[in-house]
Amino acid sequence: MKRFSEQLKKQSDSIRLRASERADLRERLVSYMEYHPLPAELQTKKLIAKQAIHTLLPTSFVVWRFNTKLFKTIVPTCVVMVLIAVPALAHQAAPGDILYPVKVGFNEEVIGTLAFSPYAKIEWETERLERRIAEARLLASEGKLTTEVEADVTAAIIEQSQKTKDKIAELRETDADDAAIAEIAFASMLSVQNEVLEKDADNVTEASTTPVGRTLAGVVAAESSAAEASQAASAPSYERLMARLEAETTLAYELFASVRAAATEAELADVTRRLEDVGRKIVEASTLMSNFETASATQVSIENQSTATTRAVATDEVISDNEALVNRANATALLRTAMADVRKLISFMTNIDVRDTITVDELVPVTLTSDERAAAVRLELSQLQQTLATLDTFDETLAPGTFSLAKRGLVDIITQLETIDLSTSLANAETLLAQATAMAQNALKMTEDMSVRAASGSADSLPELGETSTTTVDATATTPNVSN
To answer: Among the four 54, 131, 342, 410, which has the fewest Cβ within 10 Å?
Structure first.
């Protein structure tokens, strides 16, 4: 049986006044208040109390009403604006700006998290290092690279470089080929920046703005040398290097198509020539690799021959194992060079600071074709013949017999060069030509010195015929014999 209190509460909750009852009760209360007003003495006390309260309050005040609905709308909007606007403004910040820590500590870190593959992460760290160097050059051009700022920027560059190298070392444990290719890209970037800093130093005059400090330039040069040595010691596979090079070459051609409208005819011709050079290196590497694969397949066939006589005959028809390995190594070396050239071209086309500082000739020298190399050999051969005629004239007029040994050496080399088939022995011809050119330069230097002494009246100081053995080079002793 329920308690009385519970029953009472239940009944009270169910009892409600009807509308007519509520109206009747309200009328009774109002009638009572009209016929029974507040006594006068109580009204006076209430007025006095109200006045006393007003004397304690300030003369004027503002009442703020808080709109919860409006707050819920404004606050998220402000947060979104801060997360978008501040990083966008920080994107162009330079060292020393108030938003620079946001750029380095937030923007770039977020971008780095969006790079999913280890190779892409290393590419981004490489680009961050390039940014640090570009920021230093910007401060230098504006005259803001003080000793303190240079020290901070240099420390940031060293830290970022070490971070990139650590990422490469981490990748090497899982994928040595990708790590080696990443090293090539890293070394190429540093090489470009080192060239730019050296050009900046060459262009500095007393009237120019503050140059990039020696400390910064020295650090970049040291990092570039170390990266070049490290990438030269690595050995990516031919197949992976070819695949990556195809992707980089495609990107280079896409960039080239995008800058055609803004580039001059000379710039277009220069970049086109470099891209063609890269293509020729790829074709040459493919040819060498094809020879290597053919030799390997033939060698396997030879090893399966049943008789020693057949094996010996077949072995004569293919290149040796060592020569095949040399072909593969040369093919990989060509691709490494092509990869470095493509990375430099991409930097040249995408970085306006690089393009405004150095030329593409300084960044990626032209690789001469076989026809161009042969034409250069013929031209220098003609110049050697002119040098030989100059030495003959000098011997007859001023110092008879002085250059007999040098002339004999030049004649021997010129004779060999004139009989060489440049289509098959171009490299040997270039080697001979380099030796003859060095010999001719030494002889011409001697003629200049002797002409100066003769003009000054010191004829007695000219070398005698018996002294020529100590002042000339016996080229015949070092000149190699080159067959056709």
So the answer is: 54
